[in-house]
Amino acid sequence: MTEENIIFQSKPSWLHYIPTLVLFIIILFPIYFFVTWKFLWPYLPYINKYIPATAAYYLPLIIISIPIVLFLIILLFTFINRMSHTFIVTSSGVKHKKGIYLISHEKSSPMIPFSKLQWIKPEQNRMEQILGIGRILFETASDNPGPDMMFFGIEDIYYLAEKIQEMMQGTTQTKTGEEKK
Question: What angle do CA 14, 19, 23 make, to 5 degrees?
Fold first, then answer.
């Protein structure tokens, strides 16, 4: 059995999650504050008559803190999502581990050896180009439609794709060299 060297190991970049957080801040915060300002603030004096004085004192603070708490919850889920993905390139193939710290990586996709890879394709949409990140799609000869594996939120995807391509060619050359012997 050959020794496997880890050549590349990474989690998705934080930049991958910026569009989601920006969407929340730019769109949902103003909508929340507009709705509360338009429909709730005018009725606070009437609501205050029916609730205890201490609750009435804290009600505006509670109303304002709701989007902040929602943002912190989204930030927590973003952190958990980021930590649950690990992309690995070894000397023998590529692997996408899925799982969180103490939970085993049983749902990981299997290691795809370089000899089984048909092609790899680095991709970026406009937002990813601006942020300097992208995805790498891996395809094998399987019957499944679409890519068999994807690394997302990777910085410098073209360099990594080139390195993987070199390793794929090295594996192919070694394989054909062994057949000639």
Answer: 135
